[in-house]
Specification:
Low-confidence stretches: none
Strand content: 15-25%
Structural class: alpha/beta
Order of helices and strands: HHHEEHEHEHEEHEEE
Largest sheet: 7 strands, mixed
Helix content: 25-40%
Distance between the termini: 25 Å
Number of helices: 7
Mean pLDDT: 96
Length: about 220
């Protein structure tokens, strides 16, 4: 879990990024939270992403001046490949997301939201995060952002490692997770305890051995 000076620097960087969408992904203060996917992990995502998804005109790399890499005839940032890979998994397990009500717990700068909404017109996309991060997300993507659990009902809840880093996550589980028909929660700890039937599947190859994904 990020805290102390690292968290302070991250939140200030989010504030600064709101005024610098052009190059903000190069800011090292942000890399403790996002835009830090190793190329070795991106390579694993590239292997499992269907060809048709690689040919879509994804917009996440249009902004922020991320570091780009060649994959076949195309270029992607490692984070964009991660977001596309997660979306590929969502489609595999839950089908098309057209018209769905989606909530994400901890959304970084909004890259997963932007990637999903590049492909689907969703009914709503909510992100729950810290105020400084919410301001960046609403500048960057089409999400409506909240600083507290909404208590609303959703078709799908997503969390890419964030929920598993919240020590006192009972309220998120009761007011978000348990109000969501489906879920895709990637974990890097055992802090997420779900009081209902679900499946546990491995995280992407190359990630930490103790990482896993909860789905229902």
């Amino acid at each position: 879990m990020v805290k102390g000076n690292t968290l302070t620097r991250y939140l200030q960087a989010c504030k600064d990024a709101c005024n610098n969408i052009t190059t903000f992904k190069q800011d090292e203060r942000l890399h403790a939270i996002f835009e830090h996917c190793p190329k070795s992990i991106a390579d694993e995502y590239y292997k499992v992403i269907p060809d048709w998804m690689l040919n879509i005109g994804w917009t996440n790399d249009f902004y922020g001046s991320p570091k780009m890499h060649h994959y076949g005839q195309k270029r992607f940032s490692t984070s964009t490949l991660q977001y596309i890979g997660v979306l590929a998994n969502l489609i595999k397990h839950f089908g098309p997301l057209e018209g769905k009500r989606i909530v994400e717990i901890g959304g970084g700068y909004g890259g997963q939201c932007r990637t999903i909404t590049d492909l689907y017109n969703v009914s709503c996309y909510h992100i729950i995060d810290l105020p400084e991060v919410c301001a960046l997300q609403e500048r960057y993507c089409e999400a409506k952002c909240f600083t507290e659990p909404t208590g609303k009902h959703y078709d799908l809840v997503i969390s890419n490692y964030a929920l598993s880093e919240i020590v006192n996550n009972k309220r998120y589980i009761e007011e978000v997770v348990m109000k969501s028909k489906h879920g895709y929660i990637t974990c890097n700890s055992d802090l997420v305890k779900l009081p209902f039937e679900h499946r546990v599947i491995p995280d992407i190859a190359g990630e930490r051995e103790y990482n896993y994904i909860l789905i229902w």
